[in-house]
Amino acid sequence: MALPTRPNLIKRLQTAFPRGTPFDRRELEKLGVSRALGHHYLKSGWLARLERGVFMFPNDTLQREDCLKFLSRRVAGFHVGGKTALAWRGIYHNLPTREPLSLLGEKKARLPEWFQKLFPARYTARNSFSSNLPKNFGLQPLPETPDGVLVSVPERALLEMLSEVGVHQGVEEARNIMEGARSLRPEVLATLLKSCQRVKVVRLCVRWAEELNLTWAAAAKKAAGKRLGHSRWTARLKDGTILILNP
Questions:
Q1: Which residues on adjacent β-strands are paired with residue 79?
Q2: Secondary structure class of 154 (helix, strand, coil)
Q3: Are residues 190 and 117 part of one domain?
Q4: Which burial class, exposed, middle or buried, applies to 230 when counting CB atoms under 10 A from its CB (0-12, 13-18, 19+)?
Q5: DSSP letters along 186-201, please?
Q6: What is the pLDDT of residues 149-193, one digit of tens each?
Q7: Do residues 133 and 31 both lie within one domain?
Q8: Same domain, residue pair 169 and 97
Q9: SS3 149
Q10: The three-state (H, E, C) secondary structure of 84-121, written as one string
């Protein structure tokens, strides 16, 4: 092992991966760290293993934002959405301190155990929108972290939360949260509703908006069109709740 070059390589690693950041074997190899050299760094205490092929610096404290960005490089369409995105953008109702993060992506994926231990989360690949919706529509980093992970804007986050009603999301809480979503942009919400493939989501959005007298209710109703129907809609949700929406 060419030990004289090791300090320079370690310095390069520390520059490429700031403190608080996890990284994988492929990223190491791009910086010139072979599998054999990576194993040597592990034995020497220069690196610590999080799981097979994933590493961090010893005695480091992983940061949530950096971990989310790491996952976004491994999971297509990965973003923070639903109730978490609403809360991060200032729309919430009595949000518990340890509320699991709501994470979404395009395909089924398993959140790493090391991530779950640090940041309890729930991941779903349930896609409420058709392929006609432009890629990453309604997904933006938070203003305070412009290079950060993608987070659903309030209009998309609301529909993602409504998709979870009766699954991982209680009806009453969802309605209470939606009551605080009074400043949604009608044009953005309309685009999302037109692409939304879930009747439950469309009808919940429109009916509750009308009942709560939200300013964008008319725009939502227009975008929903014929999917609202003319008869009462009843459904038994996965949690056993019977949801009844009048026309």
A1: 104
A2: helix
A3: yes
A4: exposed
A5: HHHHHHHHHHB--HHH
A6: 999 999 999 999 999 998 889 889 999 999 999 999 999 999 999
A7: no
A8: yes
A9: coil
A10: HHHHHCCCCCCCCCCCCEEEECCCCCCCCHHHHHHCCE
